[in-house]
Amino acid sequence: MRAPGPVALEERTIFAMGGGGFTMEPANPLLDDYVLSLAQAKEPKILFLPTASGDTTPQINAFKARFSGRTCIAEHLSLFRLRETRVPLAELVAQQDILYVGGGSMRNLLAIWRAHELDAMLVGAWERGTVLAGLSAGAMCWFEWGVTRSSGPPEPIEGLGLLGGSLTVHADGEPERLPVWLAHLRDGSLPGGWALDDGVGLLFRGRSLDRVVSSRPGAEAQRVDAIAGELLRRRIKPDLLGSRATDPLGGFDEAVEEMRRVHRLRRGTGGRRS
Amino acid sequence: MEKDGSLLDDYILSLLERPRPKICFLPTASGDADHYVVRFYRRFSPACEASHVSLFRRDQGTGGVEDDLAAHLLSQDLIYVGGGNMVSMLGAWRAHGLDSILRRAWRRGIVMCGPSAGSLCWFAEALSAFHGAPRAVRGLSLLPYSNCVHYDAEPARREEYHRAVADGMTAGFAVEDGVGLHFRGTKLERVVSSRPGGRAFLVQKKDGRISEACLDAEYLGAAPPAGERPPLAQALPLAGAAVAA
User: Least CB-CB distance to A87: which of B29, B91, B131?
Assistant: First the structure.
């Protein structure tokens, strides 16, 4: 169980991926291992929310395939399929170390969360230091704005607003989003933000960008802001996960443990976990 | 469309006056489950102009209706809402403006029907037992009653529904699997069943106590030969097809 009360802002963690992880990279576990490394628990409890896809079986199976053999306790939450367990939602969410949100329709995702009052529970989880992670719709939802194809053509959509600015995803895989996003930045109807290629993730501590990582060589992030109607584009080269030269993780369990210890020491929160 | 539910489907089609009626399926409550959509077309496309609306795959062009949802739905003879989770369904409907489109469709005389969540949604209130204690949830309120489905299939349902009505939920109808309530306007016209002996109940609070009046359903099939039992054991739950014309 997480600490019952709110943690300091810089201990609140969101990992937002432009694409990638178990649903998109069945043979590449780098981003998902990185997600696990963000939790402080030795054996983190990770809950998958496939809401944006309508809880499709392939997404749920891919989640199980990825996480069932790893050092974690993995479960998924279906908001469509009736199950035997009648654990209240708030209780289930409060038990987790990591909440991992899948891709799909961002419009449906937020509307269905609201209908179950899950949006407020997720904000509460973030405030208590639960790691929030996700890709595509599950990444954009944490920002003020995203660009969705929920109704067909790409259009801006408001997110939960835990993180400032806007996010657009699949910048390389679905290039039709990017021009829509840039046009809205230019005319000032969307705040500046990030465009992420598939395989790239942004790590936020509190509301500040802490690190940019990637599971694929060559994948990029860019930060774009509009200044007096002109777009200022800055490319960000991510740290490639799994290469020992740039990454202390190195894909090895010992290294993961080492990093968790360092994180705990650095933030002086070693005793917070039960 | 459910197993053991073909008599109810035939009954619903009998309400439509056109020879090849237009019928649109909304599988939202199942998360637009592919197997459900396939089952719908298998059942209805031979006799109807069948279509479906997917609210989850609108970016993928997977054969569902993509363009003007309102124009499409308002041109139907029948709108068939699939089962699943009612709260998730209503949330997604609101996000796409479907709640108001469906109200308009009903006022135009389009027949609305569905099992389980596809029944609950037409009522003012419904009993939903999902991730926690059973609670009252609001529906579209076309019918000013409450509704409880799977009344025989889930042992705790009866007690939960009685308690909810005692605690102030609107009086309403509890329905066993395989039984459909047919409303004209807001008036209950017929209770029909795909199984012999199927029942519905009117549950209300009278003088501070719960009263439960049994409404015997008309069996839609031929009477089974003596000594032969209907195949209840293999039946998938189908409950409370609310039909409003």
Answer: B131
- Both tokens of residue A113? 């969360």
Identify the DSSP state of B186: T
Interface pTM, i.e. ipTM: 0.85
Interchain CB distance below 8 Å, B91 and A114:
yes
Reduce the DSSP state of residue A266 to 3 states and report it: helix
3-state secondary structure A43-66: CCEEEEECHHHCCCHHHHHHHHHH
Chain A contact for B66, CB < 8 A?
yes
Question: What pLDDT score does B128 carry?
Answer: 83
Query: Is this model's pTM higher than 0.90 or not?
Result: no
> How many Å apart are CA A213 and CA B216, to the nearest integer?
65
Query: Which residues are bridge partners to B111 per DSSP?
Result: B78
| A-B Cβ pairs (cutoff 8 Å, strict) | 81
- Residues of A in CB contact (< 8 Å) with B are 51-56, 79-82, 86-89, 92, 104-105, 107-108, 110-116, 149-152
Q: Are B80 and B53 in contact (CB under 8 A)?
A: no
* Catalytic choice (B52, B150, B162, B182): B150
Q: Backbone dihedral region of A104: left (phi > 0), alpha (psi from -120 to 50 degrees) or beta?
A: left
Q: Is the pLDDT of residue A205 over 70?
A: yes
